[in-house]
Amino acid sequence: MKTIIQSVVLLSLFAFWGCSAERRLAKRLEGDWQVVRYESENQREQGVELSNIGSFTFYNNNRGEQNITYSGYQNPFPNNRDFRWTNTAEYVTLENALSRNPKSWIIVENKKSYQKWKSTDGSTGVQVLELRRTGSKEPGGFFGNKR
Predict the structure, then answer these.
(1) Which of 80, 132, 85, 78 is nearest to 109 (CA)?
(2) What pTM does this model have?
């Protein structure tokens, strides 16, 4: 009987720790993040590395905005749109209305003011995204933005 009680308590602690890690990450993501580096590596093609191409804003209602602009052949390509986001303790998933499939990112580094994520394209490509916190933790002032 004592072993069963210990097992239940231990299992409950693991479940609580997992949920709280998920909640901590969600709270940590809320706010404004600068994209300091984006890298795309592919075994078949030359890779791409871009710096300071825009920002992500994560709101506390699992919505957000991306404001990304990158240049190709001297022409700017804006990629500004709203998205929905979810997370676990190890992953962040971004989904927007224009894409068929959500994009999941593996969290490689998770710090208060710095995030490093990796993802794949489903083939031989790997993308790396590095984010640095800018401005306030909660956009929209003292009460946050509930968009």
Answers:
(1) 132
(2) 0.75
Domain hosting residue 44, numbered range: 2-134
CATH number at residue 77: 2.40.128.280
Number of domains comprising the chain: 1
Q: What is the pLDDT along the chain (147 residues), one digit of tens a residue?
A: 666 665 555 555 455 555 688 999 999 999 999 999 999 998 788 888 999 999 999 999 999 999 998 776 677 777 889 999 999 999 999 998 777 789 999 999 999 999 999 999 888 899 999 999 997 554 444 344 444
Taking the CA atoms of 53, 33, 60 and 91 in sequence, report the sign of the dihedral they define: positive
The DSSP code for 18 is H
The phi-psi region of residue 122 (left if phi > 0; otherwise alpha if psi is between -120 and 50; otherwise beta) is left
Instruction: Extract the tokens encoding 3.
Output: 């072993």
Rounded-to-integer distance, Cα 99 and Cα 6, Å: 47
Report the SS3 class of residue 79: strand
